[in-house]
Hints:
alpha/beta, Jelly Rolls, 3 domains, six-stranded antiparallel sheet, 30 strands
Amino acid sequence: MDTIIPVILSGGSGSRLWPLSRAMRPKQFLGVTEQQTLFQLTLSRVQQVEAAGGPIIVANHEHRFLAAEQARVLGVDPSAILLEPVGRNTAPAIAVAALQARADGSDPLILVMPSDHIIQNLSAFNAAVALAGEAASEGLLVTFGIVPDRAETGYGYVMAGDAIKPTGVHRVARFVEKPQLEAAQAYVASGQYCWNSGMFMFRASVFLQELAIHRPDIREGAEKAWLKANRDLEFIRLDKEAFAACPADSVDYAVMEKTHNAAMVPLDAGWNDVGAWPAVWESQVKDDSGNVGRGDFMFEDSEGCYVHADRRLVALLGAQDLFVIETSDAVLVGHKDHAQGVKKIVERLQASKRKETDFHREVFRPWGSFDSIDQGEKYQVKRITVAPGAKLSLQYHHHRAEHWVVVSGTGKVRIGKHTQLLSENQSVYIPVGETHSLENPGSVPLELIEVQSGSYLGEDDIVRLEDIYGRA
């Protein structure tokens, strides 16, 4: 059997799941539906595919440590983590992954998976992948068509053409853009159409050949970015200039809608793309009134509602078909019929340069995380968590002093040329402009409170001198 290399695309922003999803921690890296993140669920799923090799992960460079750490927690060893300096849509992303898959001289099948989907029936998924693998081995470019259970205007559709071998595979008759409701109802009633899932399978060389035929500019741009890529720790950084110059296009437009070798395998496996809050509600087990909640919540005389509560109790009274999303710094209340409008709210926040579009109050770093507890004109208080064995960069600040108080664990602190160990209830002061670093030499997380004071407290007032994570 041919080796199958999963290609995990994880560069999306997930703005329709704001305020839980943010630019620096988008939905694929969040536990939207359960404790494991959507990205981790995808990694776990492809690990069970027969003949699967180490996955190739394509990620935004800003999310590199999230992707690496979440894979490490699962014990997954990626064959490569390719970093996109800018987003160029799925065709260039798949192209660089196909080139990477062939880097050792082999020509495997690649299974392209978005990192933010839910698939509940893994046996049905594995059977569909096996069928797609047979077709892809014969030179076909296979898309997985989701068997629809309703007329849906939010998805594109794929029309099944003539049946071909192996049994269960069809030629693609045509791709259809997101339709109006009447057309969607007709598609579903005909039994000939499936939803376009965004999942694909083909031989790496076949995809690259087809891309060279139909979009040689993308093929050339992606290869240039890949050939000029640089190694950075366990990451492969695509060349910024070359990748930015590569035309942006989806794999559907660039290849699948143009090729004469497109095929479809129907997939009926409890698929959900978790594209908006009603989709999250739909994917969950509901109570007798159709309500679903995560966190601390209460429903009273309410029907068909969804609550996500991060920090506080959220109670709904006499509500119907609402979604309420509570985080540490924002609350969203909306009707399920208007869920697509969340993107408009995000756009307005971005236009106002509000930080709530980019960061949560708790911000994750490769060494751990910090939570901004309180902030005033010339002070800020943070709770800092440093993972065992992790170390913050050697740095200094132009505009702020810092006072650290250890709450639990042990910290190895360097200030100037002096190094000391701090344990619970001990503290230290770092003057403005003094070089300093913090390390957790222990086997348990280090928790401390940081009090900043100064004329400017922004995160860009960090001058790094040494950093084990390769940050500038």
